[in-house]
Specification:
The complex is a heterodimer of chains A (189) and B (70). With 189 residues, chain A is mainly alpha-helical. Helices cover 59% and strands 4% of the residues of chain A. A two-stranded antiparallel sheet of chain A has the order 1-2. In chain A, β1 (116-119) and β2 (123-126) form a beta hairpin. In chain A, α2 packs parallel to α8 (175-187) and α5 crosses α8. Classes of the chains: A mainly alpha (189), B alpha+beta (70).
């Protein structure tokens, strides 16, 4: 099968993660991974993003498949249950809104900018070396730190399940995947 | 002499658990799988030869290669 341009989007995903180590403001670009799949599902009624364009999925496929970094075991049954998938979606969004709230507090002047990336919603990693000031409000940078935390956390989770189970195990509980499937279900009822 | 009828094997998706990620579509050498309206994977049994590539690829392991009565 001949490769298409969109089979190389894993390079974009990898570049995104690397850029966050140099200038945190690049984290804003990650919003594309939120809006493109949503628009495709809302307008087109398909999971075209997952099926074709998801660079993260391709990255897991490549590392777990071609590079053999996956045990290729079946995922446990609970992990593909509706409870876990929708539960994780709700948890992920709760954490996402908490992050938006923290951003709001910085914009409102109620709290000051925290130059940390929070991994797995718990571990605060000092990240000041990727912050060189912003032309805009510090809140803009706070969102970048928060959003990069979301992206890094989900990548780490995806890598762990890639190693333990099949390469693209992340796709089973990916909140964007669950949400776009839900949108498609409602839309195509 | 007894004649044994050969029952073809095909890929069968457990549609309740399918997350419609499309990993199977990418590996199918015959282009026999498609994602139906973003909800689940559907196998065209007229094209499927039961090679099992999709079953191995499926992250949720919800594709089974089983005998189907034509």
């Amino acid at each position: 099968m001949k490769k298409k341009w969109y089979d190389y989007l894993w390079i974009v995903s990898l570049t995104y993660l690397i850029l966050g180590f140099f200038n945190i403001l690049f984290a804003w670009l990650g919003l594309l991974c939120f809006f493109i799949p949503l628009l495709i599902s809302v307008i087109g009624g398909t999971k075209g993003y997952c099926n074709r364009y998801c660079g993260r999925g391709q990255l897991f496929s490549l590392l777990g498949g071609r590079f053999g970094l996956s045990r290729r075991h079946d995922v446990p049954r609970w992990m593909k249950s509706k409870w876990f998938r929708y539960g994780f979606l709700i948890f992920f969004f709760a954490m996402f809104f908490l992050m938006l709230w923290n951003t709001y507090l910085v914009f409102a002047g109620a709290s000051s900018l925290r130059q940390v990336v929070t991994l797995l919603w718990t571990f605060k990693l000092p990240w000041q070396w990727a912050y060189h000031g912003t032309l805009f409000h510090p809140g803009v940078a706070q969102f970048a730190f928060g959003f990069y935390s979301v992206m890094l956390t989900s990548t780490v989770l995806g890598l762990v399940t890639m190693v333990l189970f099949k390469p693209r195990s992340w796709c089973i509980y990916c909140p964007m995947g669950t949400m776009t499937q839900l949108i498609c279900k409602v839309r195509n009822r | 002499m007894t004649t044994t009828k050969r029952v073809p094997k095909k890929a069968s998706v457990s549609q309740r658990d399918c997350v419609a990620c499309g990993c199977c579509v990418k590996v199918c050498p015959l282009g026999a799988i498609s994602i139906d309206r973003g909800i689940q994977a559907v196998v065209d049994w007229a094209k499927c030869v039961g090679c099992g590539k999709c079953a191995r690829e499926c992250p949720a392991s919800v594709i089974e290669i089983r005998e189907v009565e034509g």
